[in-house]
Amino acid sequence: MFRARRIWVTAAAVLAVAGGMSGSAQAAPPSDAGPFTATAAANDGKLPPGWRITGKGSAQQLVWRSGTRVPMGDARVEFHAGGRLLGVPTPAKDGRTFRLGLGAVTPKQLTDLQVLAAGRRLDAAGDNSGSGKGRSEVAAQPAAPLPAGAIDPGKPGTYRTTTGEYTLNSVRLPGYPQPIEMQAVVVAPKGATGKRPLALFLHGRHYTCYKPGTEDITGDWPCPTGLKSVPSYRGYLRDQQLLASQGYVTVSISANGINAQDADAEDAGAQARSSLIRQHLAHWADWSAHPETAPAVVRNAPQADLSRVLLIGHSRGGEGVNRAAMDSLYPPPAAQDGYHGPVRWKIRGTVLIGPTIFGQNPVADVPSVTILPGCDGDVSDLQGEVYVDGTRGVSRGAALHSAVYVEGADHNFFNTEWTPGQAEAPASDDFYDDPDQRDAVCSPGAATRLTADQQHKAGSTYIATAARLFIGGDDRARQLLDGSGRRAPSADPARVLTHAVGANRGAGFLPDGQVTVSGGKLCSAVDPDPAVACLSDDSKGSSPHFAQWEASKEVGRRAVALRWSAAGSPVTVRPHKPVSLGGAKGLALRVIVPPNTTGTQLDVSVTDIAGHRATLGRVRVDGLPGTQRTASYWAREVRVPLAAASHAGLDLRHIKSLDLTPRSRSGQAWLMDAWAWRPGTPAVTSAPLPRVDIGRLTVKEGDSGVKTYRVPVQVTGHGSGQVRLYVDNPATGQDTSRLVTVSPGSNAIDVPVRVEGNTRFDYGVQHDIFVKAVHGAVVGAHRGGVTTENDDPMPTFTVTPIADRVTEGQPLKWKVTLSAPADVELNPAFLVQPIASGPELSTLDVDPQWLSENSGEEAVPERPLSKVLSLFLWTSVPAGQLSGEISVPTITDQVTEQPESVRFLAVDENGDPQSGGPELTGTVVDAS
Q1: How far is C-alpha 875 from the geometric centre of its chain's CA atoms?
Q2: Residue 658 near residue 650 (C-beta atoms within 8 A)
Q3: Intra-chain end-to-end CA distance of the chain, in Å
Q4: Which of 260, 383, 386, 409 has the smallest number of Cβ neighbours within 10 A?
Q5: Rg (Cα) of the chain, in Å, rounded?
Q6: Quick one: which H or E segment has residue 886?
Q7: What is the DSSP string of 278-333?
């Protein structure tokens, strides 16, 4: 409807006619009916392409419509303005339209509007794929294979397998109107004796329904008549068969009911998925105790050992698996949970495949393996790296947390039901490929891109590797996961790289802590200031280590940045107290270098408190294959032995500094951390920690008085710990943060919200807070707040002429008057209409720049204004004021003409002219 609308229109209501009042109208913005044809960029004061305002009153929404369908995936589609997250819009069924309530967003906050999904730009002009940065010129070449490990867990075991399904009664989960299915496929070993460990799979967010024989797919639930449910839960049968052949009982559960309803969930469905997982585990515990009550497929399988459970989650299923592990150790608030029974199982580890982690709240005391697909086109920022980085310093540090980077893997092909040519329903490669914008690393056919079967085989192998280590206790599997530089041949030809934290790593040099740096600088993972941020926006690619979170600026999430133009100048890292490397075999460092670079060399040295210094060795770090469209700034793990320090007589229990000295001519690198390292996988016991959950309170503003509400916060569990609290200021869009010590029953997180009642219309205000664990705590629901709803009617408006008969060259003018002032800016809108009779004002009678700004049309060829598509007028009535003016600037010509008229009519909430509503009519006469 609006072409080239000024940006302030996106922050205030467009007033429209609602009802049949002659000569007056209620203020209401138009909907998304009509063309999305804005043409200018936001930074020049106009609305970007595809954006507009819909809704009415306090339900006003900012709407973006994509030129192509945006696939239903796991990454959240987010609206950003000025580098700040505005919110998560709700998708429409067409897969192209996304709506976000504006709330108290002000005009100053709506600059540089962007649509992002996992850091991928969706609204770049002419490109809704998210590539947004053009063609890559890099021709990445595969590297030499790593040496083989001592074992290969990808080899099938000795058991034959049996497959079957079960369907139980659906369950109700808090916040989900429709019941959730309890359906699963079981693959189990034949002939296995004794109790067998249980591996449970959960798929991610995908289309839920399809029409056989067509390309029609939807996100409905339950599926409408004529459509079938997409069997995403059957997509891991190959992985299940491999594990079952090795003696595991496996079950893959369906979550379509959650996928169809999680768009409005504040946590994107994490708690619901956890509840569903634990509902299934509770049934397995029942069946283990009473086998005669089990479905046939379970009765025919070996009895499951619920003391040895491995959870595997793909995409949002990964975040659900993480939450289920957390909830099994640290129970969630009962009101938000969909399972209220006892915990009769023990989760020994998790495998997270291309996972989301919107809460950035990993469970530190449950071992994990996170598979990062190098060509992920859905969760493209590879935010799952936080399952590794986010555990540092939080708890005891004994659990291994491994990142497994699979070069050339996309997001979908780990699930056969999301893979073209293998899926029952329509499926696609999630990495967008344009023949005119081929990606040198990830387009099909590139030397580094895997086929679907190659990728799935690699995924199966590393799932089995995690099972071998976490469930089987075989320490030989660790070297395939912990950065030791070994490969599992069954995954060939995939190139798989790993790094890790935890396990037998001891004290470390952590940029997140109290540390000083000389010769380089401490940089911030997330900061809007390019001088502070570790990676600037114009970098060629992104880093999983620096994935965005809720806050626009994070405190204490850092790396050490090195940049040099000549070899030989050391960068020194000094922790606030000496680090003990005693008993360690080596020093393990995680170092990032730019993609496609080779031969970066660094000497690694340490100095003890007596000033004795020893060079431990030289490391070489090569970059990953990458382009502007990949998250390839990923840390490689390198190790140096401590023997040189021992021989030099250093006191390894009191090391005061770490030096990195570049030996390459020039370059750039980032140190993520360095750890005292020795081999082995220690036993893991969970620490008794406090758990923090943030809730949301919704209140009416009222007509008078002042009330103070508090953000709902629950702290349960045991002991005390530290979290970082971020409080968003809705007026400025800025966050403030502070470190808070929490313990059960305390009110340390006390965020009051003052609400002043009045009788003036506004859009309501949302006060948000976010919490992240720092040390000795876990965080469940990481965000919440107080939402104040407007309870006052939107003003109506009337129109009176100021100058409705003018000489050409003079502007036509009208005054728009509100029935009452509002607390927000309002903008009445009118659409041009044909006149009843006589000559009509034409495109050559008005200022051509005004015509272009208000319609996007050119003046030539000449035509009546009513023939101009989507020519709207609007005016601004600032907050607290009652009126504004609307004008049409005319120009003088040399043509003798009869008086010419123009007519505009107020529009309704759909952007359509409202019969009987306020009109703008005017006449222009010749100057002669």
Answers
A1: 36
A2: no
A3: 37
A4: 260
A5: 31
A6: strand 883-888
A7: HHHHHHHHHHHH-GGGS-HHHHTSPPEEEEEEEEEEETHHHHHHHHHHHHHHSPPP
Contacts (Cβ under 8 Å, ≥6 apart) of 809: 890, 891, 892, 927
Region at 312 (left for phi over 0; alpha for psi -120 to 50; beta for the rest): beta
**67 SS3 class:** coil
Say if residue 666 is exposed, middle or buried (CB neighbours under 10 Å; 0-12, 13-18, 19+): exposed
767-821 pLDDT tens trace: 999 999 999 999 999 999 999 999 999 999 999 999 999 999 999 999 999 999 9
Q: At a CB cut-off of 8 Å and minimum separation 6, what does 126 contact?
A: none
CB-based burial, 534-556: b 16+ in 10 Å, e otherwise = bbeeeebbbbbbbbbbbbbbbbb
* CA dist., res. 354 & res. 321, Å (int): 13
Q: Give the list of residues 6+ apart from residue 225 with CB closer than 8 angstroms, or none.
A: none
Q: Is the peptide bond before 362 cis (omega within 30 degrees of 0)?
A: no
If pLDDT is split at 50, 70 and 90, which confidence band does 915 have?
confident
Residue 784 carries which side chain, given as an amino acid letter?
G
pLDDT recorded at residue 27: 40
Query: Could you tell me which of 200, 260, 210, 269 has the C-alpha nearest to residue 233?
Result: 200
User: Which residue type sits at 828?
Assistant: P
pLDDT, tens only, 585-610 = 999 999 999 999 999 999 999 999 99
The answer to whether 541 touches 376, Cβ cutoff 8 Å, is no
Please tell me whether the peptide bond between 333 and the residue prior to it is cis, using omega within 30 degrees of 0. no
Tokens of 183: 């359906």
Q: How far apart are CA 251 and CA 198, in angstroms?
A: 8
pLDDT tens across 78-100, in order? 787 766 777 788 777 677 777 77
Query: φ, ψ for residue 577 (rounded to 5)?
Result: -140, 155
Span 487-501, average pLDDT: 98
Q: Which residues contact 506 (CB under 8 A, 6 or more apart)?
A: 580, 581, 583, 584, 675, 676, 677, 678
pLDDT digits 0-9 by tens, 12-38: 233 332 222 334 454 433 333 333 333
Q: What is the enclosing helix (H) or strand (E) of 723?
A: strand 721-728
| Strand partners for 523 | 559
